[in-house]
Amino acid sequence: MLYLLAEHLDFPGLLNLIRYITFRAGAAAMTALVIGLLIGPKFIGWLRVRQGKGQPIRDDGPQTHLKKVGTPTMGGLMILTAVTISLLLWMDLGNRYTWACIFVTLGFGLIGFMDDYDKVKKRSHKGVSGRVRLAGEFLIAGLAAWMILQGNSTQLYLPFYNGPVIDLGPFYILFAAFIIVGFGNAVNLTDGLDGLATMPVVIAALAFFVIAYLVGNVKFANYLGIPHVPGAGDLTIMTAAIIGGGLAFLWFNAPPAAVFMGDTGSLALGGALGAIAVVAHHEVVLLIVGGLFVLETVSVILQVFFYKRTGKRIFKMAPIHHHFEQLGWSEPTVVIRFWIISFVLALAGLATLKLR
Question: Are 274 and 289 within 8 A, CB to CB?
Fold first, then answer.
């Protein structure tokens, strides 16, 4: 919005400044951070009044979590509000890629909100049927993938390899939808401890801030041997807004959490990162940068697979962060160590940009 205003108003100095993606990205991060911090206290108070007993806590989970009874959920609404306002202020409203990513973010956020609302209303941790959720997610992700492909290629790129590997053609929509839905649910599975999912999302967004900027710049893209996607550079503004909104939420979500992100936030943020990776043609790199989320998902898949076939568990409890809790690690220890792992994986993902 401000980008268009600067073009139409006679403020040449302001226009030149706003034209810089880096300036708008920094402004977007600060805008989302300030909005999140300002609305946080009243928003949490409103959620506490509306929800009463807060998010239902699983009886079969770690016993230390029972003390969290009464903590409100749906805190992801704070992040979505801050990010959306920031984007509308600083994004280029003519960029289809940003709109596709916003569509995924808000669409997944709506599905997560419905799930959180169902849990609070029924006082159950089950929520909306998994099949219904996945159907809605694939519909949204498929439409977003179609929007993205209107100005993008269908070629698949792999890290450590210079140039495209294969052209997926129309099957790219299915591949892209799988990446978006899969990563959205991976972040959702990780969101089980205070601050556990929030900081790794911020770290992954920071990594894709760099990737989106490089992919959108033809000189850097050609030098590094990575795909050049005209217009993808504007996604740095979205990643910056996610960083700002995520940090603001972490202020209130740090142990002991005053509010939980809920599926409203985790599904939305995971889907947003997946969509950004699809636009930048760095879907496989996303699996490295977001390796922590992949690890959490794989731990659940392995646990269910082996238990159904052998009646035995690989982990004391899944997702894997609960396994370490059962081993005696305190919650802050698990969270901070997982943050470190996330940071290392993000650096590994960024290293693939040059190692080709």
Answer: no
